[in-house]
Design goal:
Length: about 180
């Protein structure tokens, strides 16, 4: 049920998703939804958590399992390959980061924590790559991690536009070049 609600929010966005959309797509009745989740905001928070655990979790895991340059390479390739696909519809978290004014403060905080977490994982991988001599010692891993997340956000946005999908694969070399030069 949360997975189906996540799909509705992902497809329509929080603001454009009505309780009747949720009821129709999940099979819940309105009373059950309010009893279990409190309201639309409560269900949205659960949908974000489901997305983080089940959809985006494998991308996190790449960096957890490989906290080094290889992990960053795999992570970026995964993001860029996904965003280049025809059926790509963006990242539920990033789609709603741009709509921060339309979601609850709790949801905005959860999305901010998601972004901080991915940036922290990338920073750790960059620090490890730097200690292994793969990244120059004068580079700032924290600033580079912010740059990588900035590029990932741009990739997510480009992936939502069919006329931009074709250029996404070329960004991989540019991002890696910035890290390694």
């Amino acid at each position: 049920m949360v997975e189906k609600a996540m799909g509705v929010f992902w497809q329509n966005g929080y603001k454009a998703t009505s309780v009747s959309n949720i009821v129709r797509e999940t099979g819940l009745n309105t009373a059950s939804m309010y009893k279990e989740f409190g309201d639309k905001d409560g269900l949205f928070l659960e949908a974000l958590e489901y997305y983080r655990g089940h959809i985006i979790g494998p991308r996190y895991q790449i960096l957890i399992d490989n906290p080094n340059l290889s992990g960053i390479e795999k992570f970026l390739k995964n993001v860029m390959t996904g965003a280049s696909k025809t059926e790509y519809k963006g990242c539920l978290m990033m789609n709603h980061m741009a709509q921060k004014h339309a979601i609850s403060p709790d949801a905005a905080q959860q999305i901010g924590e998601f972004s901080a977490e991915i940036e922290s994982l990338i920073e750790t991988a960059l620090r490890n790559a730097q200690s292994e001599g793969q990244i120059e010692p004068d580079k700032d891993p924290k600033q580079l991690a912010s740059f990588v997340v900035f590029c990932v956000h741009g990739t997510v946005l480009y992936g939502r536009h069919d006329d931009k999908k074709g250029v996404i694969p070329s960004f991989y070399d540019m991002v890696m070049g910035a890290l390694l030069s």
